[in-house]
Amino acid sequence: MRPFWLICTVCGLSLMFLFYVWGKVDGVRVGYELDQLTKRKVLLEQEHDVLQLRLSQLTSPERIARLAAGRFGMRAPTPGQIVLVTPPGFSTGDGVEGDTPLRVVHVRTLYQ
Question: Looking at the whole model, is its pTM more than 0.70?
Answer without folding.
Answer: no
